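Why should sequence recovery work at all? Because a backbone constrains its sequence more than one might expect. Tight turns favour small or flexible residues, buried strands favour hydrophobic ones, and helices have their own preferences. The token representation captures these environments compactly. In the example below, the structure is given first.
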């Protein structure tokens, strides 16, 4: 009898034309399960149901984009009926980490800025009558790696040579991301200093992103300056591995870059060593 009364009440609401559309009041995001293959975002959506009866959710269409790159889809978790008044619906949206390589290229092209957009389409059904609730959220985040590199002071231990200036810029392709380094080295002695090699290494949260060595085959004139170019090449396939550490580390990354410049000063072999470490943070899930 109680069930029949509820059905009659629902029918009365539908046929009276008084069935009202639910309204999204707020969305709170946090990270869920994180693996090497997937990154989960949990969204707690507060919905106001202005009707006097619960409305069951019959379908969910959720797509997540980062700079226009489709990263993954979502689904409802747990109870999917929205009670009369305010109720909470939990959504799980999963980023496929393999797609982070494509996102990264757009992120660098866009000046290390990303727009993350989640498109929702919730379909509620009552006795064959559907209510669609489409909406989307959009947030931005950035990393500022190049600007932080440009603000740190690279110094070394060789008194005969000093770094006068360093500039950094990105160069990116579908497979490789390069930090192009331009440095002006000053010779402080009245004798030519031959440069033998340049070694470099870059780590992000302990993950080795790039390591290499190039031959010098040049020299710094007496009391003069010499410009050196260096290509710190990162394979984009390493981006998903870094991403996992970044999210697990509360969206924080420590970047370490160190360089060694082999040279000959007054006929003796010497190595100019310099390194810098800095951090950057994001607020992706909490944006």
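From this structural description, the recovered sequence reads:
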């Amino acid at each position: 009898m109680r069930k029949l009364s509820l059905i009659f009440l629902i029918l009365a609401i539908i046929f009276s034309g008084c069935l009202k559309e639910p309204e999204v009041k707020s969305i709170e995001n946090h990270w869920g399960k994180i693996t090497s293959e997937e990154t989960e975002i949990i969204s707690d959506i507060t919905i106001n149901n202005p009707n006097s009866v619960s409305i069951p959710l019959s379908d969910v269409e959720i797509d997540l984009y980062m700079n226009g790159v489709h990263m993954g889809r979502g689904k409802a978790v747990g109870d999917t009926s929205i009670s009369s008044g305010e109720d909470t619906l939990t959504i799980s949206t999963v980023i496929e980490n393999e797609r982070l390589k494509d996102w990264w290229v757009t992120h660098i092209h866009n000046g290390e800025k990303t727009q993350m957009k989640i498109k929702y389409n919730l379909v509620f059904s009552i006795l064959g009558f559907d209510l669609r609730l489409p909406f989307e959220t959009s947030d931005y985040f950035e990393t500022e790696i190049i600007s932080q590199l440009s603000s740190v002071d690279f110094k070394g231990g060789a008194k005969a040579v000093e770094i006068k200036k360093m500039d950094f810029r990105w160069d990116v392709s579908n497979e490789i991301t390069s930090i192009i380094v331009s440095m002006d080295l000053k010779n402080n002695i009245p004798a030519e200093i031959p440069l033998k090699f340049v070694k470099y290494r870059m780590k992000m949260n302990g993950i080795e992103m790039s390591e290499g060595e190039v031959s010098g085959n040049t020299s710094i004139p007496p009391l003069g300056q010499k410009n050196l170019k260096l290509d710190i090449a990162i394979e984009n396939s390493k981006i998903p591995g870094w991403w996992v550490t970044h999210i697990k580390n509360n969206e924080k990354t420590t970047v370490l870059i160190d360089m060694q410049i082999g040279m000959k000063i007054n006929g003796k072999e010497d190595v100019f060593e310099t390194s810098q470490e800095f951090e950057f943070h994001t607020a992706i899930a909490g944006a």
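A few observations help interpret the result. The CA atoms of residues 109 and 172 lie 7 Å apart.
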